[in-house]
Specification:
The protein is mainly beta. It has a single domain (about 1-210), classed as Immunoglobulin-like (Sandwich), CATH 2.60.40.1190. About 0% of the residues lie in helices and about 45% in strands. It has one helix at about 20-25; strands spanning about 1-5, 30, 30-35, 45-50, 55-60, 80-90, 95-100, 105-115, 120-125, 130-135, 140-150, 165-175, 185, 205-210. Strands 1, 2, 3, 4, 5, 6, 7, 8, 9, 10, 11, 12, 13 and 14 form a 14-stranded mixed sheet that branches. It is globular, with a radius of gyration of 16 Å. The two termini are about 25 Å apart.
């Protein structure tokens, strides 16, 4: 899977609203069950944009109910409802960023080392430099997550900020507890198992100069 990440000419105001013109023009990827590849009844769509300062990520999520109680930085958000993005900026499939945001706008930011043989080391970022916002609509049963990741958080890519045509690796996920004990694990690029840390399943994020606004 290759996603063409379109460039915007100015900075997005991060307020959780994915109905801005820039997001409306960006391609959406519908997340599917990470094991089976089947679509979920609770639609989840991920989108990406960039400028010279930030990589922007947006998630649109439908839900039946929300399970989210954590509000602190780097709490174990993956134990409840959460959206996640993994970014491998040098495409080595062994080191990558894991960033999560839950419906309460709590953030987790890890740096991962993965030997691809079963050992995964997680290093928590000391400072939260991720700009994020969440809008939750209980009547429509939907929430939107918007985040801006500064390119200064990445240090191993060939170019920081990226140059047009650069390709990084990525995947995006959602853990959805809408159905009580029947937890859904959704992914842009399915991993074939309930395990998101499968870098060989990462897709390609291509930085394009196709303008939006």
């Amino acid at each position: 899977m290759r996603y063409k990440c379109r460039k915007i000419s100015n900075k997005l105001i991060i307020n959780g609203n994915l109905r801005k013109a820039q997001w409306e023009a960006a391609e959406g990827i519908r997340l599917v069950d990470t094991v089976t590849g089947l679509e979920s009844n609770n639609q989840t769509i991920a989108k990406f944009l960039w400028n010279d300062t930030f990589l922007y990520v947006g998630f649109y999520c439908r839900y039946e109910q929300i399970s989210a109680t954590m509000s602190g930085f780097n709490e174990k958000l993956y134990e409840e409802d959460v959206v996640e993005v993994f970014i491998d900026d040098n495409s080595d499939r062994r080191t990558y960023m894991e960033i999560e945001v839950n419906p309460l706008n709590a953030v987790l930011h890890y740096y991962i080392q993965n030997d691809l043989a079963g050992t995964i080391l997680q290093y928590a970022r000391v400072n939260n430099n991720i700009i994020s916002a969440v809008i939750q609509d209980q009547e429509e049963k939907e929430f939107m997550v918007e985040l801006a990741i500064p390119f200064t958080e990445f240090i191993t890519a060939s170019s920081i900020p990226p140059e047009t045509g650069d390709i990084w690796l990525f995947n995006a996920y959602r853990i959805n507890n809408s159905f009580g004990d029947d937890v859904e694990y959704l992914a842009c690029s399915p991993t074939g198992m309930i395990n998101f840390h499968i870098p060989n399943c990462f897709g390609e994020l291509e930085y394009t100069n196709i303008p939006i606004l």
